[in-house]
Design brief:
It holds the Pfam family Exo_endo_phos. It is an enzyme of class 3 (hydrolase). Residues 5-244 form the Endonuclease/exonuclease/phosphatase domain. Belongs to the DNA repair enzymes AP/ExoA family. It is a single chain. This protein is 23% helix and 27% strand. It has 253 residues and is α+β, with helices and mostly antiparallel strands. It has a single domain (2-251), classed as 4-Layer Sandwich (Deoxyribonuclease I, Chain A), CATH 3.60.10.10. Helix 3 packs parallel to helix 4 (170-181). The chain starts with a strand and ends with a strand. The model has no long low-confidence stretch (mean pLDDT 97).
Length: 253
């Protein structure tokens, strides 16, 4: 099955562009959107064929944040994990099927203030603890979304210039280290190794995307027990329409 994740930076804006035609042509089984910036009644038709299930978790603040999942796989449970996203920013959709827990997550950005950085780090901590509790119950885990942190120097164009910037702070990167240390797999690195200059986000300023001055901050992580089921991982940087591009995996589930 093919799973895709994309921070669309506004679902209504992206729906007016040809970008979704390229996504539809890839025949996703599950499609996870972040930063939809819309409520349920504001979301326009997106594809020529309807998905089996559609789940939307809008932020309480209008026109802000929010997540959305479209699936042709039936879920046995869907939740918004408000015990983690306690600020009601619509940042998590949790889906269960078979023995798998899939998380569509728009992790907080820590650049606005020290308070938001502290909020981001708490979100990281609480989210990982919850995933580990599910693993202890026998669940396999898939995490996708905009993590808002580049892991290593290879994952952004200007690591030294951004060493003091939220999104590449040692304390943020350490969370990804901890995640991998617990046996989760960065699927893109697992498949493609040390490939360089492959990013998933570019600033709208200074022609950054044209120059490929970017960051890899959108991920698919899977728990170690799914490693042998993983078939491919990809970053679709040719698909435009947002400041992020879609990322995805193919996995035998």
């Amino acid at each position: 099955m093919k799973l895709f994740s994309w921070n669309v930076n506004g679902i209504r804006a992206i729906a007016k562009k040809d970008a979704l035609l390229h996504v539809e042509a890839l025949e996703p089984d599950i499609l996870c959107f972040q930063e939809i910036k819309a409520e349920k009644e504001q979301i326009p038709p997106l594809f020529s064929t309807a998905f089996l299930e559609t789940h939307i978790n809008p932020a309480l603040k209008k026109g802000y944040s929010g997540t959305m999942t479209l699936s042709n796989r039936a879920f046995t449970k869907t939740d918004t994990a408000l015990h983690i996203d306690h600020t009601h920013e619509g940042r998590i959709l949790e889906h269960h099927f078979d023995d798998v827990a899939l998380f569509n997550v728009y992790f907080p950005n820590g650049q606005q203030s020290e308070e938001r950085l502290a909020h981001k780090l708490k979100f990281y901590k609480d989210f990982l603890a919850y995933c580990e509790a599910l693993r202890a119950q026998g669940k396999s885990i898939i995490i996708c979304g905009d993590v808002n942190t580049a892991h290593r120097e290879i994952d952004l164009t200007n690591p030294k210039a951004n060493a003091g910037t939220s999104g590449f702070l040692p304390i943020e990167r350490a969370w990804i280290d901890a995640l991998l240390g617990l046996g989760y797999i960065d699927t893109f690195r697992h498949v493609h190794g040390e490939v360089k200059e492959v990013y998933s986000w570019w600033s709208y300023r200074f022609g950054a995307r044209m120059k490929n001055i970017g960051w890899r901050i959108d991920y698919f992580f899977v728990s170690e027990d799914l490693k042998d089921a993983l078939e491919d991982a990809f970053i679709l940087d040719h698909i435009t329409g947002s400041d992020h591009c879609p990322v995805g995996i193919s996995i035998d589930l």
